[in-house]
Amino acid sequence: LGGEKIAGPATIIAHSDAAPEITMSSEGVSEVTLNCGNDGKVISNDVNTPTEFWFALPPTTFEQGVRIEVVDVEGTTYVKKTDKKIVVERNKIKPMAAIKFAYPTDNQLWYTRHSDSHELLEFYGGDNPFDATITDHRYDEDNKLFVIEFDKPLTVIKETAFKSMGLSDKSKDVAFVYLPEKLTTIEEEAFRGSGIRNFVFPGNVNYIGVDNFVFCRIESATFCPSQTNTPLEMAITSSWGDDSGPFYQQASLTNIYVNRNIFLTKGGELFTPDNTNEGIFSGTSSYGRVSTVVIGEQVSEISPYMFGWRDIVEIEIPAHITKIGNGAFERCGKLTSITIPKAVKSIGVDAFYNTESLHTVIIEDSNEPLQLGISYGGELGTIQRGAFYFSPLKNIHLGRDIDYRDGDEPFEPDTWDEGVFACKNYDNEELQTTLTISSNVTKILKWMFSGARMEKVTIPASVKTIEERAFEYCYVLKEVKCESATPATLGTKVFNDCDELTKIYVPASSVTSYKNAENWSDYADYIMGY
User: What is the pTM of this model?
Assistant: First the structure.
């Protein structure tokens, strides 16, 4: 998008202990074209075996994103793009939402079967569970799918239309349903127990009723953007005895593409989840299937417990997201890295509770403080822990001040393990952490890094206050570098039990002022100039 080079000559610097560095030459090109000839390439219309496009890009940063265009033989152009900065990492796949080429007409609905049967489906919801009259129902041999035609545009699928309650029910054999673009409503239990593995919801769908996905084995769910940017109302599931998210127990759900805001309702009233089971895409992880999640541009916030208990390894939070709700990633035990964009203003409590594989946290640079909730130990329990307490952090980038919150109230830790980056793994000798503090940070909070395993820390000149016990129990901390000529206000016992700390470097002209400053004087023997 910004003329950045994606192919051509490059300079590669090899390292023995790290990934190679690549720099694209100015002689490179910023776009490439794959020409499939006048006859083109036949694209699959089977969602279970789609045509996939793979692009190998240099492992570098594209400040203005990338753009992919697909042009069919009739000249119609389909576009997928990201206008924001993306980082292409070596040996890692960055998925994009699907490009769809075929839709039913407004007065059609298509479906396919798992088997080779050409027998027409008999609907659980009666002969005509739609808001339009069926005028034709046939198998299309050319396209290998079933076609239902109506006397007018289809806008409503009525309750229990494709529902199945028995393993021998024919609805179990339905593999995929292609919905028309003008569809607006899917009533309760319309797909309950059906054999559908993949759902694509057009952007005009504005309501999905209760218990639609109970007893299904959904593998992929795609929510297309609304042309009017209208949120989708989705009713909470109630069939499990307690309230639960619409995709609860969908352990096979491995692909989630969501490009619009979704809000939950119960009995017509707005419903706000308050535990892991109630999030929109929450689900048990007992089957250990890794979920790929792509969040689109119409999503403005990640709602409470939205992805709770999903086996997500990595997720890109778009630059326009402003809020991450309570428990949004709770129990995402395979999540390895997270980047918090600068637009995010608040993160709720328990957002990262039990993310026990999370090793990289990047809080992007911003002059606006981030309101960050603590962890209660899961589902608003009673034991308070730091926001990232359970995460074996290897990389921390703190790019802004933190306003620590307990709900709507300011929170001040009163034990070491309640610090923001307090580390459960304080005694893990194999864990080494790299900490970067940006020049936007002005304060280091009480017990903020207690137990973290950094050997070196650089405190930028922007930091004016370091609260008490901020680095307590940092057992492997050996060296601190302070870049400010004026000593920051230092709380008591900031480096308490940092047994290996022997060097605190300060500007050479400020050695005396540091040694004489309140609480800095406790470490006078370690202070030296640079």
Answer: 0.83
